[in-house]
Amino acid sequence: MNANISVTNPSVLITPQDTAKAKERRQFMWGIALVVLANLLFGLLYTYGKWLSPLTGTSVFLWRMVMILGCLLVFLVVSGQSRAIISDLKAIKGLKSWFWLLLPTPIFASQLWLFMWAPLNGQGVQTAMGYFLFPLTMVLFGCVLFKEKLSKVQWLAVALAGVGVAAEIVRTGELSWATFWVCGTYPIYYIMRRIQKVRAVTGLFIDALIIAPVCLIWLVMTDMDTVKTVLTDGWLLLKVIGLGVVSILALQSHLEANRLLPVSLFGLMGYIEPALLFLLAVTVLGGTFTMDMLGSYGLIWAGILCLVLQGVVSYRKNKGESVSSH
Fold first, then answer.
1. DSSP 212
2. N or C: which end of the chain has fewer CB within 10 A?
């Protein structure tokens, strides 16, 4: 029997091109699922600090990094990926290669600190605005550096979100440093990791391996009372461990989605997170929302709706093509 003949319909030949398209569709849908999961988990993490009293925002960040490394090591051993990590690390040759690989790590550390510090220090809404701007910057990188093309619906989404962000800046008369730091530096991290072509779990392991020991030393030297409190309070310790587990799931999903999806689409899907963060900031975290914010944020959410609708249409189209090709 010809190996290229479909079992369900022997008269239909499955060409290598069909196989490649099916693989590309599976990769696309897996990337979409991962980025949605990551955004939901990031929303959970945004409010997690409220459940870790008496820890401060910076303390939560320090414990988070320590737990990320610990949970990641367990994950690598259980999943059997430790050998792959060792192989990736052995492939890095020379000081220049290591310098290039570690260059975006400080950006990653600063973003994780701000993410945990901002909600507990009155910068929740401002940080959420930074994440609204983040996808626009990613789209710009995708178009300029990778020559990616946007559909008409995607351009409409960008335009609506861009006008909404501009209107909010005009309304408030300022651009918070937290907003600028998110949208101005975080895209650099993701673009550099993509250019480096490092696997998501390897990049996360390298970042955690550099950042976590520094955080642990900082905790021991400057906040030993908090260390004792966490280690002697079983319920608080369990919640701190949970912080590491959720962080690993969120970061790994997000970085893997960044690898699987086109830069521009990954950036546009990023609007899910700030919309969720904003809602949490004005509800769970007690931020303020006034009626004059409806105009700017309404435009931003309209842009998100465009992406959702296009995603549904694309999924149905891909599903239809998959059925018809068999």
1. H
2. N
